[in-house]
UniProtKB/TrEMBL annotation:
One of its GO terms (molecular function) is sequence-specific DNA binding. Residues 1-10 have a biased composition (Polar residues). It holds the Pfam family Homeodomain. This is Homeobox-leucine zipper protein. It comes from Salix koriyanagi. Residues 57-116 bind DNA. Residues 114-162 form a coiled coil. It comes from the Eukaryota.
């Protein structure tokens, strides 16, 4: 992400050095800058710190070295919040601007939070899958038990019906025997 040079300067300071004369920039004839502003641009160009895109002058993004990243990571592991004194000390030790250190920590906390959410989601998903599997197994067992209950009730009803028929037959036989004697 590119940052405008004037983003930290006051508007009044920018207005005093921004285009207000008829001089043309040697870099692009379409732009008109004051001598003071053009001098600043030329100095920044010599340092390799400026890109011009669409008429806006921005700083080039500076990459951190591997050692700087390792040191920042170690500090992040110790404490992911950055106190102002610690930020300045760390910036001095690593040869960075305090703002760079602060932005790195902010970005790292955002990445950490995203990773933490992914881990939490993974745990919750695994728990859900396990519970779902257990629920399905219990539901299957429940259906099997209900089927068994229905079969046993049917068998019991069948036996009761047969038993009632035999009792009725015995009564009828007993009555006919009594009449026959």
């Amino acid at each position: 992400m590119k940052r405008s040079l004037g983003s930290s300067d006051s508007l009044g300071a920018l207005m005093s050095i921004c285009p207000n004369t008829e001089e043309h920039s040697p870099r692009n004839n379409a732009h008109v800058y004051s001598r003071e502003f053009q001098s600043m641009l030329n100095d920044l160009d010599e340092e390799g710190c400026v890109e011009e895109s669409g008429g806006h002058v921005t700083e080039k993004k500076r990459r951190l070295s591997g050692d700087q990243v390792k040191a920042l990571e170690k500090n992040f592991e110790v404490e992911n919040k950055l106190e102002p004194e610690r930020k300045v000390k760390l910036a001095q030790e690593l040869g960075l601007q305090p703002r760079q250190v602060a932005v790195w920590f902010q970005n790292r906390r955002a990445r950490w939070k995203t990773k933490q959410l992914e881990r939490d989601y993974g745990v919750l998903k695994a728990n859900y899958d396990s519970l779902k599997h257990n629920f399905d197994a219990i539901q299957h067992d429940n259906e099997a038990l209900l089927k068994e209950i229905r079969e046993l009730k049917a068998k019991l009803n069948e036996e009761n019906t047969e038993s009632n028929v035999s009792v009725k037959e015995e009564i009828i036989l007993a009555e006919s025997e009594e009449k026959g004697h």
